[in-house]
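ok so i was messing around last nite and threw this chain in just to see what happens. nothing serious, just curious
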Amino acid sequence: MSLLLLFGLVFLSHFNGGFNTPLPPPSYGDHVSILSIDGGGIRGIIPATVLDYLDKALKAKDPRTSLADYFDVISGTSTGGLMTLMLAAPNSSHSHQPLFTPSEVVQFYKKNGPEIFRRQHSLTCPKYDGEFLKQKTVELLRETRLNETLTNVVIPTFDEKKIQPVIFSNYKLKTESYLNAKLSDIGLGTSAAPTYLPSHEFQNDGVKFDLIDGAMAANNPALVAVSEVIQHTGNKEIMLLSLGTGITANNKLGGIFDGVCQLGWLMNSFDVFSEALYSTDMTHYYLATLFSGLVPQDNYLRIEEYNLDPSMEEMDDASPKNMDKLEKVGKNLLSQSVRRMNINTFVPVPLDQTNAQALDRLADKLYAERLLRLKRKSMEKGRRPFIGTVEANSNRISAA
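result:
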């Protein structure tokens, strides 16, 4: 065997051993990384398209990795919650690969959106029976439970019988075992938008749940995810990528309620709406304050289309034309300037870099953090760091 071939085999064996592994915990690194995805129905195509850019940037550095290999937490509400599960659930019981890449998420929406939002009867409430979404969710996620995800997930829901939020989080499982539910139940619960889809009832570990859309607790789940991290990972510096699903200039609620069914639901659920309304304000304010004081501002990247065309506002418009337009919005966001919320005026101010440039920089940080953790974990076990081992073997080969 030639010396060059022998060196190549040594290199590849260490490379595979060092990098084709799950992300070591934050205790081995300098940062905790969070990905957060808002709710918004079919408009989930927008953040999925943005994530496709980041996923490709990271795969250019290591093609065998997924987003779950870089983010300590993936958090999502409603459509963002479903996307979280698609990105964090294993595609088989013996695989470190997720069910979907972001590119595949976009195609999933475009293929299945029309069936998910196909109305059977014009005057029924909720508008959709949810049967197709339930069938697809159970088919994809099977019996997989929360403790089996590839990375930590944080998914808000709201229990309409108990009138309180329910946060499904891997961090909580040590003390709240009843939250270790099937991912399919969690996904159907967080996506059950009032007036659009029926609530999702199930029982787990003796506890009954009657769940509706996580937007009733936090349509933007970023602050929930940050809170979970602060409670459970100590004083590590946080890196947060928060993705919106687009809002029009004159409708900041983003079309969460359907006008036809809204009145009836509000009459029967006023207490739910009141609790949700007063517990979900100020998310942007708190995050902007946190990342301007305790954490470097550059560690917080929010990507949102603040001037969405009103024709794309409806969260259930799954026509091929509208879905193509939503994908285009996501791609166009990449060339737009990063916007940072002014905490006094609540007006997003453009910065001197594009979202694509900011995502490239984030990819560099995520990759460097992963390498640092792998190196420190290897050294803790008494082995030489990956690069040092390769160099030592190279010297021995040369001497031979």
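not much to say yet. Residues 1-19, 277-281, 386-400 have pLDDT under 50 and may be disordered.
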